[in-house]
Amino acid sequence: MRYLGLDVGDRTIGVALSDETATIAGGLATLRRVGPRKDLKAVAELVRRHDVGEVVVGLPRTLDGSVGPQAQKVLAFMDDLKPVVRVPVVPWDERFTSVVAQQVLVEGQVSRQGRKAVVDKVAAILILQNYLDYRKVADAEASPREARAGKPTP
Length: 154
Hints:
By secondary structure, this protein is an alpha/beta fold. The chain has one domain (2-148): Nucleotidyltransferase, domain 5 (2-Layer Sandwich), CATH 3.30.420.140. It is built from 4 helices and 5 strands. Strands 3-2-1-4-5 form a 5-stranded mixed sheet, sandwiched between helices. A hairpin with a 6-residue loop joins strand 2 (12-18) and strand 3 (25-32). The longest helix has 37 residues, at 112-148. The two termini are 14 Å apart.
């Protein structure tokens, strides 16, 4: 199953896509926001075209973990997206991903103009990769518990 990762901002949406084994996240696109309906349609088209089974959306919590104004916008976007894509849409804590994305690009000696063009896509990659890594560990920890409980493992 493939996963789609989103870094939803006010002007752009960074998009990442996993490989079919859900191991590696790669950059897919940076969508320019043009309006709620068209934005949702563009994401839904990516979900359909790439046969995505789950969408992971970065949730920009505040430093203390609470939901601030930007996170509320992202949650509203997620609510609008769910009926359009008809696959699970899950939030994932994205604190510091944009900062890390900037650092990665600076260390890679990407020009200031170049960074501006790809930072949202790189943030989406970081969000999705973090989620995929978490799922691998959680699935591995769950398998032995299920075996001990006499439940078949998938």
